[in-house]
Amino acid sequence: MTVGARPSRKEPGDIDAAILAHCRRVAALAMEISRMAGLSASTQPLEEQAARFDHSLELTSHTALARLAWEVAGRDDKEDRAPGAPRQHRAMAGIVRLCSLVDEQFEALPYDYKDVDTILDEIQTFAPLEGFHPALVEHFRQMRCRDLPQQIRCGAGLPVEALAARRAFRALALEREYEVRELAASAVTDPVLAASLIRVANSSLYSPSAKLSSVSQAISYIGTVEARKVMLAAVLRPLFASAGLTRLWTHSVAAAQFSSALAGQTECVGAEQGLILGLVHDFGAMAVQFAPRETRDIYARLVERGCPATYAERLLFGCDHGEIGADILAHWDFSGSQVEAVRFHHQPERSNGNLAAFLYLVEFWSGQDEDLPSFIRVGDCLSRTGLSLEELTQTSTRGSALKTLQALAQS
Questions:
Q1: More confident residue, 160 or 317
Q2: What local confidence, expressed as pLDDT, does residue 94 receive?
Q3: Nearest Cα residue to 64 out of 105, 19, 25, 97
Q4: What residues contact 390, with CB distance under 8 A and at least 6 apart?
Q5: What whole-number distance in Å separates Cα of residue 90 and Cα of residue 93?
Q6: Distance (Å, rounded) from C-alpha 70 to C-alpha 80?
Q7: Are residues 259 and 275 in contact, defined by beta-carbon separation less than 8 angstroms?
């Protein structure tokens, strides 16, 4: 796709909302690049600036961005738009144009995948034709945190809880029958697992007539199948907690519930595998918490101002949390198909298998907005998995097996 060309993929009724979202992302990027370039941009909230645009269907992205360029610079008068306008204002206009091109290329990724370095190289080549200096592109490269993926992808740098989680998953991830004594032997060596089993067994979900006080009693009471689910989830909970990601933990449990239930509607994944994939699909999101402080601050500002999580991750790390998490799971000896599903669950068109498409639909159902919306991806994933939108919306997660995980999440 030619640099500067925007794909037409929005429904007519969505065009004004799409332009507004585009402008907010461009504004977020422009503020960061202007900071890198040493320009003093307006401190007025960018959402308010973008919201002042006319939302009529006649509004084009270029009209909106022309106004945005001057508003980000803190000026909006005709004199400053003249050829002799102050240098800072002309530079800001160039930055906004640059950021618009970057955003357009990110929007085109479902159609034409390119890594971030390729996108920046191409834009730098066309910079003079687009009206800004090629050197501005270097500020995007300066934002990159190139060490984080290498530190995290083999598990290095993660909290010590990751070692316990890795051992437990290796012992529990096999799809086979487990005996009470076998699970109890694993649980009693880990206070987190033991406490989780006893807490869930004594919860209102199971309501035992007498309080259960031992691991063996808890496993016998709720059954080995449910006990194993509790243990699989419980070994991850401290890892999410240590990274301050309680919300992500809750999302992962909900995704595990839904993917396990949805598996019954398709032949591409079983309920057991769906459960596990749901628990670990966003594992790589923890990596952001262990980035240098400056990178975390940039990430937080971008997300707060309207950039989806995977969008900010690709800019800052050159990959998204799915790709980072997949490398960790490969180190944990997950199967190749599971690793590929996690790696591409935000880029399902890059996977030859159907598990990534399945996980993409799970994320779509969750409404987390971790990536740019894409009708073409949703349609393609529905086709590949044999699912329908009706099946997504009607799938129930109310079975007792799934309530077990919910009891753990809320305890």
A1: 317
A2: 84
A3: 19
A4: none
A5: 5
A6: 9
A7: yes
349 C-beta neighbours (distance < 10 Å), count = 18
Could you tell me the CA-to-CA distances from 123 to 4, 82, 96 in Å, in that order? 9, 26, 13
Task: DSSP for 35-87, please give it.
Answer: HHTT-----S-HHHHHHTS--STT--HHHHHHHHHHHHTT---GGGGSTT--H
Structure tokens at 316: 């800052």
In angstroms, the CA 341 to CA 4 distance is 31
- CA angle (238 as vertex; 226, 222 as ends), nearest 5: 15
Q: Which two tokens stand for residue 362?
A: 């799970």
Q: How many Å apart are CA 248 and CA 257, to the nearest integer?
A: 14
**Tokens of residue 201, six digits:** 């067994």
Given CATH 1.10.3210.10, say whether it is the number of domain 145-159+245-411: yes
Cβ pair 200, 408 in contact under 8 A: yes
pLDDT surpasses 70 at 159: no
Distance of alpha carbon 363 from the chain centroid:
9
Structure tokens at 169: 């998953």
Q: How many residues does the chain have?
A: 411
Per-residue pLDDT tens for 283-324?
888 877 878 889 999 999 999 999 999 999 999 999 999 999
Q: Please tell me whether the overall predicted TM-score, pTM, comes out greater than 0.90 for this model.
A: no
- Sequence-distant (≥ 6) Cβ neighbours of residue 378 within 8 angstroms: 360, 361, 364
Reduced to 3 states (helix: H, G, I; strand: E, B; else coil), residue 286 is helix
**How does pLDDT run across 101-141, given as a tens digit for each residue?**
999 999 999 999 999 999 999 999 999 888 888 999 999 99
Selected residue with higher pLDDT from 66 and 377: 377
Q: Answer positive or negative: Cα dihedral of 199, 203, 207, 210.
A: positive
Q: If you ran DSSP here, which 8-state letter would residue 7 be given?
A: P
Residue range(s) occupied by CATH 1.10.3210.10 in the chain: 145-159+245-411
Q: Is 285 exposed, middle or buried (0-12, 13-18, 19+ CB in 10 A)?
A: buried
